[in-house]
Amino acid sequence: MNTNDPSDDGTDGPNADRNGTDDEPTEEVSHEEAEELIQEIERRRSLQGAAAVAVAAIGILFSVFQLFLAARSFSFTIWLPIVDNWDVSLQLLQANAIHVSFALVLTFLLFPASMGDGIVARNLGRIVPAASSRLGERNPLTNLLERARAASRWAFLDPDRERVTPFDVLCIGASILSALYFMTEFSEIQNMRVFGLQSGRPITEVYAFLQPLLGGIPFVSEYSYAMALGAIGVLLVLEATRRTLGLPLMIIVATFIVYARWGYLISGGTPFIGLLAIPELTWPDIVQNLWYNTENGVFGIPVTVSVSFIYIFILFGSFLEMSGAGQWFIDLAYAATGNRKGGPAKASILASGFMGTISGSSIANTVTTGAFTIPLMKRSGYSPEFSGAVESSASSGGQILPPVMGAAAFLMVQYTATPFADIIILATIPAIVFFFGVWVMVHLKAVEEGIGGVEDADTVPLLSHLKRGWFYLVPIGLLLYYLIIERLSVSRSAWFTLVALVALIALVSAYSEETRGRLLGVFAAIVGVELASYVYAGVPVTGLVTGAGGAGLLPTGEAIDLVVSRIEWYAMLAGALTLLSRPNLDAPLLDLNPTVKTTADSIGNRTGRDLGDSQPFRLGTFVVKSMDEGARTAVPVVIAVAAAGIIPGVISVSGLGPNLTSLLLALSGGSLVIMLLVTAVASIILGMGMPTTVTYIILISMLATPLVEFGIPLLAAHLFILYFGVIADITPPVAVAAYAASGVAKSDPFETGVKAFSLSLNKAIVPFAFVLVPGIVLLREKENATELPIREQYRVVGFSDLAELSYSVPEILIPVAGVFLGVIALGATVIGTLYTGANRLERAGFALSSLLLMAPGLLSTSVFDLLGLVGVTVSVDALLLDLALRGIGFVLFVGLAAKNRQEATAPGEINQPTVERT
């Protein structure tokens, strides 16, 4: 077994004979098994026939709608071949409503209302047996209850996750009706936003045929049609939340709605709790603010961010994954690190980081990457629990890894009014520290157990692998270029990158030794004809054909600029035309995601034609399947942000915000450490089993302002909340990512979660480090900070700041170096090994050195807070104290590391400790 790590002595260690001989099965999980595991965890349906076609069609239409928004904003033209073109101009509220309605429809198609295993379903299921035992099977009441149960099961239950129920159809109809109202009656909505929902038309006026049936009912005549649709819409969001994200989140959101209505009953004179008292609000007030508002509520800032940023990036990730980039990145990770000590685990970390750029979902990242990496880790000698823990821990980091990050990062852009390029800069160092920390721990585990690399047969040469798939790196490079160099908006950057990606795949699909000359010729002809059209008539060829045109353009100026600006589309067309001329071409460089080939083969089988090997058809399948998968991936995210938006909506309409800040500041007793610990614990508890986006939205609504009041930079406070929301994915008892990994690893779920949390401990300490020393995340206080609002007192550092050594060395360089060294000390603490085994006292010393190196301010601030409780006030230079404590931590770490190394190399000592495998 090859081991290229310089610390490897050339032997595989005492556990080398275990490689490939684990009792647990180590076969790789197939793509279909991985997909089934994800569906089982997320409780998605496996639809067939017309229902599956409907889901695909709606998903593709959802993606097309979002692509129109990304390309043309809210005003665009839809080309119709028979009638006149349809000019569409949407308001923000309309676009948000359509966005959420698409997600609601797909939710009710993809997620069952009940599988019969819930508390309510189980208890209702006992009614008929109880009646039968008491009254007898032939009793009329028993028969009536039996029929009622059968009807309920037909209407609501889907135990096998394979059929759409009548209740789903009813919810879908209501979702579509709501969207149509926003589209057709927007002028009425605008009037009601001024005069209130009660000014709208009653239901019996909108639907005159209901007058004889409902006209005499007081409730119907009392409330307007808009009020009814708004209330139904909020209920639909709650139901969709329950299906996709679970009952706990639905209860939390519903509790806030109930609080908005009856929170006025809280007495303002009650100590502490009295701060939660709010003015009395009516149901129309609440519904109007939660359903017909773009500032807060369902269609508030979170959904606006989803419309503008999140969906297009999810779509970009879907296209990248369907292009085969995911497997290529996994192979790249193994080519780079597979032969090193503990190579499979290190490759898993790199692969999970790469896949995180594509996915942004901890569960999907864990299962898709882990299907390949976990069996290899087990085969090399890591235990199933440790293998699953490594994969889930690294996969959870995908949401904090630039350049794409997760959906919460785009919410941060909107809530803090910060360019996404600055968010990337802000998040880079902590993300690198996290992945480096997990890397250190798996290396130390390999040292402890003598685990080497993988077999040569499981890796590919790095150089040849890069030559084969270098083009997968181009879209990521382009994205960074548009965001950081060109400083384009997030949506425009994603749109241009997405177009370039499809063009690149079209070119690679059409490229071979035989067709490269033809491909180049077709491309040159397209560019030449288009340039000539601009020079001759000032319009593209499409305009010339339709009779448009005018004065020509100079070929050396504007014409060339216009052609260059559309070069991706010409490349896309050149690839498609070349493929049409050689439909049976075998693309030697491209290996699309297996889902694409499976879908193409399935369509071919249904149509009775052999389409799976047709390269043009496969390219078309790649495009539509990417849009379909993007929509499916986006559905839980859209529902999450829609539901979570209700909470800041309630806080805004009730005026709770300032009172909540006062309450939290009072409860913390003025202690920054207590406030940070409360935020961290709340983030982890709330984030258990919930998407990071939901945790982030809820907590920044309640906790961001109190943190900023303590003097923490706004961006650092938001990043602090985001990090602990991510940690929740691998924190027992509801460690969703770790439990997903245990399904692949065939390991104990709870033990896997415990190990995943221990591997991610640095992710819990680093946030404390950068909120106390903002230089770690490259934030610097502005020179006129005292004159600015507290939220605007910090800025992202520039090159001039880095060149100012009196600032950059003590504020950035030394703290960052301390964090990296502290991560190594933390690894020795958790694993119990550095060069050799460490005893308990040495591990305690490593733990102390880790804290002093990474976050000395946490220790010093805690001491000062305790002294303040007894009336002792201490005044010290914060920077000098920080540097002194880091220096103590450095000396302690160096001393312990030197002692540990001496013990490892001492004559007669056993270099590899005998430690029970975990």
Provide a compact summary of the structure.
By secondary structure, this protein is mainly alpha-helical. The longest helix is centred in the middle third of the chain and has 30 residues, at 420-449. The protein is globular.
Q: What does this protein look like?
A:
By secondary structure, this protein is mainly alpha-helical. Helices cover 68% and strands 2% of the residues. The protein is built from 43 helices and 4 strands. The longest helix has 30 residues, at 420-449.
- SSE-based structural type: mainly alpha
Tertiary shape: globular
Overall radius of gyration: 30 Å
Question: What fraction of the residues are assigned to beta strands by DSSP?
Answer: under 5%
Span between N and C termini?
23 Å
Major sheet: size, sense and barrel closure? 2 strands, antiparallel
Low-confidence stretches: 1-26, 910-918
* pLDDT averaged over residues: 84
| Overall strand count | 4
State the share of residues found in helices, binned by percent. Answer: 55-70%
Determine the number of helices (DSSP H or I, runs of at least 4 residues).
43
How is the largest sheet built, in terms of strand order?
1-2
